[in-house]
Amino acid sequence: MTSVSPIAAEMQEPPAELRGLTPAELTALLAEGDFEPYRARQLYHWLYVKGAESLEEMTNLPRALREWLGERTRVGAIELARIRGAEGATRKALFRLGDGKFIESVLMRDEPVAVDDTEAAAAPARISFCLSSQVGCALGCTFCRTGFGGFQRNLTPGEIVGQALTMRRRLLAAGETLQHIVFMGMGEPMHNLDNVLTALRLLTDPEGFKLSRRRITVSTVGWVPGIERLGASGVGVNLAVSLNATTDETRSTIMPVNRRYPIGALLEALRRYPLEPRRRITIEYVLLRGVNDTPADARRLVGLLRGLRCKVNLIMFNACPELAYEPVEAEGLDRFAAVLSEANMTVTVRWSKGRELEAACGQLAAHVLEAARG
User: Fold this and answer.
1) Model's pTM, two decimal places?
2) Residues 303, 304, 308, 313: is their CA dihedral positive or negative?
3) Could you write out the DSSP letters of every residue in 78-121?
4) What is the pLDDT of residue 352?
């Protein structure tokens, strides 16, 4: 009997992941074993509609097919390692990947809006998933903890979709439904766009995960080639862009990407971006005390965005031990927002969820923290 040495075993390719495969890819896979094409549709349903986590759950597939798949594949290579946060509130999920690396994702709950002065809305809380696209990030924005430990690798489509599938199955309470997915977790989606596009098509497939493309937002620091590719892809999801400054000098200091794609080039790309009727680009602006928060900054922002179909989302900076910035005071936020509102711009304020869990914008850094814990 021939044995495999430990070194040789480590060099063997891991089993293929079923999560992340498209209907065509599943059909081609099963054709290798001479299984009927309709079995691929059943398998697809188990993966993306039911969110199955094992082949054993797929009870309407023949045992022979499950055994064949078990010898060659695994459902996914993403494991829910830990959950922080109370049930019914914002929750942070720590995922361990197949190679031992870690990422974080967040389930965010917004309370229902009151119907009138005395009665709360009967509908459940609005649920959003914040997904990661990379382990770490290479872009090094100085106000974001994710870039603190650098970039490690891209996530596969299965690892991206697997976050949403696992959170939908494990973190939603009875009667709750998912309303939105935002690609605002760890990583720059435009640096992993091929895999992100595959994940987007799976998440919006009416025969699969079934989320409307209008309910998905991809956020970028302003990587212009990726913005152009996303617009040309036809996926039709929402676009959000982190601007965070009104001069190239300031933006290059806090966002090194600006040295390659300065504000002028970025805004030109946004003006060319294809938008359906009644759709707008979201301009994200993290307010950093003493850096980008003056009324003059607000007035420059109005001038920069004039004529662009957009809305501005003001974000309070979330303090981290590693980062030296401070959030603005409430009065400074109000002054900044007032300048935009007086110019007839649509302005919202993002009150970050999960700050006490280190789950808010710019605070996700599992790839560093879990490695340090060893």
Assistant:
1) 0.89
2) negative
3) EEEEEEES-TTS-EEEEEEETTS-EEEEEEEEEPPPPSSSS---
4) 52
